[in-house]
Design goal:
Elements: H1 10-18, E1 25-34, E2 40-51, E3 54-63, E4 72-80, E5 84-86, E6 91-94, H2 95-101, H3 107-119, E7 132-138, H4 139-149, E8 155-165, E9 168-179
Antiparallel strand pairs: 1-9, 2-3, 3-7, 4-5, 4-6, 4-8, 8-9
Helix pairs in contact: 3-4
This protein binds 2-acetamido-2-deoxy-beta-D-glucopyranose (2 copies).
The site of one 2-acetamido-2-deoxy-beta-D-glucopyranose has 5 residues, from strand 2.
Length: 180
């Protein structure tokens, strides 16, 4: 459809922007990066579309210097305008402390908690003495939980996480998606 004159569309565009009823979230891309492959590396990291209604993300990180007694991450949600602009603070999340007490109420941490509780092998107290698996996180799960926790308008989003152990940056996990 070509738009010849934008003015009459404005009310529709505004209604579209603020309408809180979403038709859905979709994963669009995932990027996993290891800064030091001697420390850890990704065996796989992908989004798979099984069919129109079932799409998921999975990753496996092979850890070469087990066990780990310390892990933290910076979590941030960005929204695409011309480029990706942060729309939340870059929150530092101390994984081992969290697993002891589960007392962080940040919405991104709460969402992260739900994901790893249901789909990973890391939902336990430190130390971590095994490889890391996040298996088949369905679009549907993100769809039904993410917007409950962080209300967002429709748009293209990125969830950036940067991972540290012993204060050293080890890698990043970036997940991209569209909320329509
Ligand atoms: C999509 O695939 C899943 C898993 O194989 C299956 O359970 C579901 O019925 C499929 N949905 C459609 C619409 O084919
Ligand atoms: C969040 O903080 C980490 C660590 O300080 C940094 O590497 C990363 O670039 C920050 N994220 C963004 C999107 O600025």
């Amino acid at each position: 459809m070509r738009v010849h004159s934008g003015v009459w569309m404005l009310p529709f565009i505004l209604a579209y922007c603020v309408n809180p009823i979403y038709s859905g979230f979709e994963f669009t891309n995932i990027k996993c990066t290891s800064n030091d492959k001697k420390f850890f590396e990704f065996e796989y990291c992908y989004i798979k579309a099984v069919n129109r209604s079932y799409k998921y993300m999975s990753l496996k990180a092979i850890m070469h210097e087990k066990p780990y007694t310390d892990a933290s991450a910076n979590l941030q949600v960005l929204r695409r305008f011309k480029g990706y602009i942060p729309i939340t603070m870059n929150v530092t999340f101390n994984v081992c402390k969290y697993m002891e007490k589960k007392n962080n109420q940040n919405p991104m941490v709460k969402f992260f908690d739900m994901v790893i509780k249901s789909y990973s092998n890391v939902y336990h107290k430190c130390p971590y003495d095994h490889d890391i698996l996040v298996e088949k996180v369905p679009t549907q799960f993100v769809n039904s939980h993410f917007t409950d926790v962080i209300p967002l308008p429709r748009g293209d989003y990125a969830f950036y996480s940067t991972w540290f152990t012993s204060g050293i940056m080890r890698g990043t996990l970036w997940v991209y998606g569209t909320l329509s």
